[in-house]
Amino acid sequence: MERSLWRQAQRGQAQALEILINQALKPQGLRVRVQQRWRQLVIHCDSPARIPAQGWTRFIQRGLGRLQYQSRQPVWLDGGDWQVVVNLGVRVPPSPTWLPYALGLVGAGSLVLGGWLAYQWQPPATIAQDVPETKITPAATPLPTPTVITIKAVGDVILGSNFPDNRLHPQPRQLLQQVQADLGGADVVFGNLETTITDHPYSSKNVNGRSVFAFRMPPSYAQILRSAGFTIFSLANNHSGDFGDIGLRDTARHLQNAGMPSFGKRGEIFYQTVRGVRLAWIGFSPYDYHNSVLELTTAQKLVQQARTQADLVIISSHMGAEGTGALRTRNQNEVFFGEDRGNPIQFSRRMIDSGADLVLGHGPHVPRAIEVYRGKLIAYSLGNFIGYRTLGSQAELGYSLILETQLAADGSLMGARVIPVIIQGEGIPVPDRQNRTIKLIQELNRLDTPGSTWVLGNDGVMRPRN
């Protein structure tokens, strides 16, 4: 834990730096707040202390040097009535290479000794007296307002099916009316389209077989989805190919014509620009005709490629066992109907390690745990969202949610919220005033992701763990 925190701080991870700096400042009764804004690191200094800008600047400059700070992102100091860009070009004696290891068993606070305390840390007020004069660059302009992208995401979406028999709603535009307001107010609204949109008459599946289903919606339903607020869909799942290549192409075309791009083909990275921020979307499933969750090395390379071309990298992963017996998320491969559906924890964390900023899981048809790992959010399953006369809604199959996340353009998680939904009757979603989904996910988080750095509150808001 201690070594990991030290390394994260070296790489410029805001939360790790804040912990280390504040432990060094604690004896002096001072604090800082560290945030990511766009591609800059911002350190908010304790302005009530009335310590001059020069004292803070030299203190932070010296500490980052001794920490062997490796990130190239600019560092701003914000003292309320002054702002300074720290010059990281000043040479400061590095910490001995043995120091973090020698101190590794005496507590997280001791690691600060490797940076600020090992050389008899002095408070900012006195640092200015014993560090050689260095150039302090005043901020010529105010700190830029960070661009924050709000993404709302849901799980499996099927508005009904007209194959092999007619299971369509007589007034389909009513299907999403009660949750439409909750889908609003976002820059991006994502869903996993667990069906096809086509008139093609021939399914690629033998629906007479045991537990074999093929879903098909009329082309007009694409506009219903767009009117409800959806902006993008993943097609990397086990039903997008229910009507072969023709049905898959039709689905993508109808979505695109309605103003909603889709993604999910093998080798595909879909890029889009939202309010000046470049997003990369990659869809995964257990099948080799999509990007496969079973091919970790290939998946990591795809994410790394996207990382070089986009500000935010978002993963859609269709994986895991299904049903009310599959609520738990464990660090092991899951098998369903004889298929290896992958290891959700291993896959999701590897994607984050490779550069992804957000992982949106679906496939189990029930909600699962949500964790924040290395500052990035992983939703292991968003469950069903709508499955009119197609998907089960009994017990936890009917527990649903809209996951809202706010991501800064540099990938920092700025906020997250679970908006609870319950699926009623024949599969129609409505707001859940009893917060059943929140309570369920809280319990699953306690069982399956106790190490998450954020926690889910009773109000559905996720906050950093104290």
Automatic annotation (TrEMBL):
InterPro entries per the UniProt record, alphabetical: Capsule_synth_CapA (IPR019079), CW_Biosynth-Accessory (IPR052169), Metallo-depent_PP-like (IPR029052)
Gene3D superfamilies, per database record: 3.60.21.10
Domain Capsule synthesis protein CapA: 150-389
Pfam families attached to this UniProt entry: PGA_cap
SUPFAM superfamilies with a match to the protein in the record: Metallo-dependent phosphatases
Sequence similarity: Belongs to the CapA family.
Protein name in the entry: Capsule synthesis protein, CapA
Species annotation: Gloeomargarita lithophora Alchichica-D10
